[in-house]
Backbone:
C-alpha cells in the first residue's frame, strides 16, 4: 500500500518514532502525499531525526492539533527516512499546497521568530519521507 485516502485527507497525524529501548514517542505533524508515500518537514536537530538515525520504524495515526488520537483510530506501520536539499524542498512544497494559507502564515511566523530570536533556520531544510508497510 502506498497511499491511503484517510491519510490523504487528514489535517494532523501522530507520527510515532521509537527510542532505543522501544518506548514510543508520538509527535503531531502536518503530512502530505509525496512520491509513493508521505512527507513532513522538520528540523535537523529534532528528536524525530535522532530516533530515526537508529531505526526507520514508525507508525502513523490520525490525530487532532494537540496530538490526541481517537479511541479505535487506525494505525499505519511504516518506515521513515530523513531527506534534505531538493527532496526536502519538494516535501515543503507538497505541505504548502495541501495546507495553503495556514502553512504560509505559519512559515511567516517562523521566519519572524527566527529574525527576532536568532534561533534555528526558519525555513525547514530537512524533511521526513514515510513509506507505508
Residues:
Amino acid at each position: 500500500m502506498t497511499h491511503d485516502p484517510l491519510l490523504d485527507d487528514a489535517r494532523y497525524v501522530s507520527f510515532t518514532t521509537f527510542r532505543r529501548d522501544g518506548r514510543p514517542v508520538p509527535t503531531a505533524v502536518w503530512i502530505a502525499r509525496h512520491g509513493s508515500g508521505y512527507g513532513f518537514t522538520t528540523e535537523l536537530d529534532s528528536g524525530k531525526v535522532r530516533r530515526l538515525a537508529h531505526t526507520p520504524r514508525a507508525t502513523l495515526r490520525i490525530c487532532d492539533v494537540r496530538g490526541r488520537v481517537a479511541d479505535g483510530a487506525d494505525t499505519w506501520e511504516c518506515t521513515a527516512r530523513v531527506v534534505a536539499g531538493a527532496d526536502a524542498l519538494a516535501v515543503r512544497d507538497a505541505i504548502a499546497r495541501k495546507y495553503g494559507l495556514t502553512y504560509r502564515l505559519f512559515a511567516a511566523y517562523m521566519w519572524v521568530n527566527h529574525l527576532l530570536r536568532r534561533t534555528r533556520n526558519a525555513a525547514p531544510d530537512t524533511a521526513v519521507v514515510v513509506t507505508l508497510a
Q: What stands out?
A: Strands lie at 12-18, 24-29, 32-34, 37-42, 57-63, 76-84, 126-132. The CA atoms of residues 26 and 77 lie 13 Å apart. DSSP finds three helices and seven strands in the chain. Residues 5-132 form a domain with the Pnp Oxidase; Chain A fold (CATH 2.30.110.10).
